[in-house]
């Protein structure tokens, strides 16, 4: 009995209308001392108030399961994307209820406004939708769904606590991956600002000698076979397939820097997942290497259907390290893992020429054996500072330093290009489009 009363008391909430009625009753009793003609009015009002409160308590508490609620959530959330969630609520009372719904979302979002108000007729149900945008990979813990229910009388509310604690993993941006995948399949990839590259020439992978037919390239005529057969014969070539594409992700301290709430490492991880998926759609083999002061994950290139899930699981677990990248270890890892000439896309970051000079000898060695594409990040905050007009001496100093650092980024691109290393200097928010553009251009020009 004590437990039942405690539960009743803990789930009972008094509304603003309840306290307003109490204040009115107190005022009436006070006025009755000065104005005797009020008579029994205060007593009648207070008695009616108690009757209404008792009636509403009976309406809300006589039915033990008057409200049904359940959270609708996907099995996993996509990092840096708007993920759709919902709360299904159903009114099982025989009267119309006013409802307030709270979802206890993970603390990482730092949001306290996931609160919904709605009205449900008897037997009616609704799905209350909302979105969450995580900015960090990992496991997110959701709490309970809490529903506050009141009748049209509006003096009290009853609280329902739906025990629905659950943990949802946040994976790299698979929603963006699917979006680019659909664009690639439907040949509408240019809608995302991705260039359509004209394919030049043909590959040199010989297939067979066949009879010449009008329309064949006369430069491919095989004159020796023609002399033997007595009719024109031509060499047939096939498009090169199953080239190896590796994304190498630097997860050292240079990738810890945040932009718009997301670290550079997460930008690189999202871009790698999207790019490798597009590469597999183009019949290439996709592989992954992560590196810091120690060797991280190595996923050998493959194009089997399970490869993408293997890459996604590997990227989900990656975290930023706090030491510099061991470039010698990266070189030996690439030489030991990549058995044929491959496209190596290295996601890293340089803030100064001295940072580049420490890594350049190793990058040049890698570029001797593979087609190396270095992707690093434009500091958008420095760019904004350099473009703003200066108003005093301090701002002139800040603007000068910002312009100097932005100019260093351009010098880094020039230095890498001088040594035959392809380079992308990209703002973090444009990374997906820029890397796919570069890959499609390399693929079309058959540089691998």
TrEMBL record:
Annotated ranges, domain DUF58: 208-359
InterPro entries noted in UniProt: DUF58, vWFA_dom_sf
Source species: Mucilaginibacter auburnensis
Protein name: Uncharacterized protein (DUF58 family)
Keywords (A to Z) from UniProt: Membrane, Transmembrane, Transmembrane helix
Transmembrane segments: 18-38, 44-62
Domain of life: Bacteria
